[in-house]
Structure formats: structure tokens, C-alpha cells
Amino acid sequence: MGKILLLCLAALTCAGIGAALQCLKCDFTVFHIPCYTTSVTCQDGQLCAVIRGRAAGRKLIMKKNCVDKGKCNTNDTLTWEGFTYSTSYECCESEFCNSAAGAGAQLSLAAGLAMLGAWLARAL
Predict the structure, then answer these.
(1) pTM higher than the cut 0.70
(2) Calculated CA dihedral for residues 15, 16, 21, 26, nearest 10 degrees
């Protein structure tokens, strides 16, 4: 019975590795006010991200979404109606890793299942 469970767990882990990345999407919020999020599936070449807009040294706006890998860890400076602000892109590579205020690394489903399988194999 234990070997069957272990094989099923291994199959689930491998199936999750090739799946498209799932992230949270938050269209827009200001001054750290929580925003309504939905899940979104990233396209090839995209990662989960938290996008922050700053002006005069203050964090003003935030979005969460998938972004192209080339935008990750970059900054843009934009001007809108005479108001200059900078935008930073903080990316991460695991399922829903942009759920926290920052976009630090979190445990992916595949890694969690692999660790559970190793623990079960050792316990049997």
C-alpha cells in the first residue's frame, strides 16, 4: 500500500512540474490597502510579480500579475501629466509566490509534494 501511495505522489509531483505558472492578479491598489485578487495563468516566458510605483520616495501604488522575465528586477521611470514616478518589478518563480507583500520565494506545490513523498518513504 505504501509503495502505491509513493508512486501516486511521484506521478503528481512530475505532472505539476510542466504545468503553467499560476499567480495572483491585483489590478491596482494604493497606500498598502488590500486589493481584490484573482488567479491568473502566466504565458511562456513570464513570472509572477509584484509591481510597485513610487514617487517622492514613497510607495504609492501596487499591482500583482504575470510579467515578462525581461522586466524582472528592473525599474522604469515614467511621467504622467507632469508627475514623475518609478516602477519596480519584483519577480518570483513558484505557484502564487506573489501572494505576500513582497515577492520572495515560497514553496511550490511540486517541491512540497516531493518533500512529503520523501518523508513518507522514510517513514515506511
Answers:
(1) no
(2) 130
- What long-range pairs does 108-116 form, CB within 8 A, spacing at least 24? 108/16, 109/16, 110/13, 110/16, 110/17, 113/9, 113/12, 113/13, 113/16, 114/13, 116/9
Cell 500579475 maps to which residue? 65
Within 13 Å, how many C-alpha atoms sit on residue 124's CB side? 12
117 close to 111: Cβ distance less than 8 angstroms:
no
Render pLDDT for 5-38 as a digit per residue (tens, 0 to 9): 444 444 444 444 556 899 999 988 887 788 889 9
The end-to-end CA distance of the chain, in Å, is 10
- Its sign, for the CA torsion 33, 38, 94, 63, is negative
Q: Which of 36, 46, 39, 45 is nearest to 22 (CA)?
A: 39
- Quickly name the fold that domain 20-106 has: CD59 (2.10.60)
